[in-house]
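Researcher: Re-running this chain for the archive, since the previous output was lost when a drive failed. Same request as before.
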Amino acid sequence: MGDLGDGIGTVIEGGLLGRAVEPNAAGAHGHDAAGPVVCANCQTVFSGNFCPACGQKAHIHRSLAAIGHDIMHGVLHLDGKLWNTLPLLVFKPGDLTRRFIAGERAKFVSPMSMFLFTVFAMFAVFQMVGIGAPTEMADDLFGSDTDKPFQSEVRNEINALEKERADLPANSPRRQEIDNTLTGLNLVLSKAANQDAQTERSVTFNTGSSWLDEHLLEKWKKNPGLMLYKLQSNGYKFSWLLIPLSVPFLWLMFAWRRQFKAYDHAVFVTYSLSFMSLLFIVMSILSTVPNGGPWAAVLFAIGAPLHLYKQLRYAYSLGRFSAFWRFCVLLFCVQIVLTLFLLILGVLGAF
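Model: Regenerated C-alpha cells:
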C-alpha cells in the first residue's frame, strides 16, 4: 500500500506541476450562457463561456460533483486537449510537433505540461509495480566499509578461542587443539581478506580528476545503496535537464537550415521525451503480466526508434535519406546525453 500511495501522490504532483505550466488546461469546456452575464470576479458584462477580461467561467458551480470534475480536469488534465494530443503524440508525432510550432496551441497540451505529467506518471507506475533501485546489487558491486558477516563470525570465534587458551595450563592437551584451530581460522581469514582486496581493486574507478574521485566516487564506494537510491529519487526531479542537454545536438544537425530555431528543437525534444515516458509506462505494466517481459523488450526495440524516426522526418519535413542519417546521428547523441544526465545526477546525489 505504501508504494501505491507514493505512486498516486507522484501522479498528482506531476499533474499539479503540469497545471502550473499550463493553467488554462482545465478550462477547455464551459456551459453556454443564456445571455449577457456579469462576471462575479471583475463585474465585466459579457456574453459567452468565459469573461474576456479575467478569464473566469460564466457558469459558477456550487456542488460536490463539480469539485470532483475540477479535480479530474485540473490535476490529471483529462480534458479535450489531452485527447487531441495523445493520438497524435503516439501515431503522428511529427505532425503534432509541426502543428504546435506553427501556432496551433489551443488544441494541444503544451510540450512542457505533457512532459511533466508523463514523467511523474512514469515514476509513479514504477513505484506501483515495484521497479526500484537495485541497492543490494550495488552493495555487492562496490562493496562497503562494514565487515562481512562471515569474517565477523570468524573473528569472534578466534577471540573466544584465544581467551579460552589463556585460561588453560601450559601442559593442557586442549591448548594444542586450540592452536591448530587458530592456525586454520587465521588462514581462512587471511584468504578472505586477500579476496576482498582483489575485489576492491577490480572495481576501483579513476576518472582522472582528483576532485571527482574524492567527492563522488568515494561516496559511491562507501554507501552505494544510498547513492543509487538518490540517483533514482533525483531522476524525476531533474528529468527536465534532458531537454537543455539534448537541444544543442539537434541544433548542430540543422545548423545550416536557418528556418529551424532552438524553440523548434525544444518542442521536438519535449514531445519525444513525453512519448518515451508513456512507452516506459506501458512496458512496466506489460512486464507485470506473465511472460510479458520479452514483449516489453520487443515493444521498446521497435517502438522507440520508429517513433523517433517518424517524428524527426515529419516534424522537419525531411526526405528519407536526410531523416535516416540524422536519425543515426541522433541515436549516438542520445547515449551522450544519457551519460551526461547520469553524471549530473551522481554529482547531485553526492552533495
